[in-house]
Amino acid sequence: MPDASELKITPPFGYDEVALLRRTDRVRLPDTNAPAFCRSLNAIALSVGEFAVASRDYPIVFASADGVSGFSPVIVLGLADGQNLFVDDQGQWAADAYLPAFVRRYPFCISRIFTDGKPQTERVICVARSHVDPSGDTLYDADGVSTPQWASYEKLLSEFEKDLDFTAAMCERLAKLGLFSSFKFQIKQGDGTGLTLEGMYRINEARLAALTADQIKALVSEGLLGRVYTHLQSIENFTRLYSRAIARVATAATGTPNA
């Protein structure tokens, strides 16, 4: 691996500056299950392995910068910019909802590295620099063995990274089949007012139905078709998300803490 001074590490979305994790580092682990960076996000990245459990609580949609490539799944957390309806006033994630792996892994992550502007094959474990603290927790015992807490993080990081690779391959496969289409969520009130949430993509059911038998069979054998239908079914959760938003407004009006 190149010298650390030559590396450029790209932090994941929402992280500030990250640094290579060293065995000697002490890390201040979060005292809440909702890191500050995600409290004002209305969507957050999801891996395909989380589809089944996440679909119970959230709409699963896809994001893309150009609507042609680079699709990635996200769960929708709010109906306005900067709104996360699953984090309360005390910064706690709703206990009755699934906590995404993207959140659970913080302040750690696995990052790709670049040398002289070129991406390398190696990946490194990093930590949010703000959480490296001499008074923090040690990650290894005197014999160099991972502490139980750090071993749990290591397992999560490894499994999540592998799942993200599979997720990227799935999205590329579905994009090549031309299955993504843009859509918007819209609610109209009785007085004519309402809200519209745009900039999202979903699997187009008509295009899915038009695939050949061989293409459908391939999606089944690759374990993708079930994930597609999980995503489609989760769209119904927009109604529940709207109900949560209404409840948030109601509790704010009465001055009671929101959940």
What this model shows, in words?
By secondary structure, this protein is of the alpha+beta class. The protein has one domain. It contains seven helices and eleven strands. Strands 1-7-8-2 form a four-stranded antiparallel beta sheet. The N and C termini lie far apart (46 Å). The model has no long low-confidence stretch (mean pLDDT 89).
Label this structure with key terms.
259 residues; alpha+beta; four-stranded antiparallel sheet; three-stranded antiparallel sheet; 7 helices
Concise account of the structure shown:
The chain is an alpha+beta fold and 259 residues long. It is 31% helix and 23% strand. Strand 10 (180-188) and strand 11 (194-203) form a beta hairpin.
Class based on secondary structure composition and strand pairing: alpha+beta
Quick check: average pLDDT?
89
The counted number of beta strands is: 11
Helix fraction, binned, reads 25-40%
Low-confidence stretches: none
Shape: globular
Along the chain, the helix and strand elements come as EEEEHEEHEEEHEEHHHH
Cα Rg = 20 Å
Cα separation of the termini: 46 Å
Number of helices: 7
What does the largest sheet look like?
4 strands, antiparallel
Whole-number tally of structural domains: 1
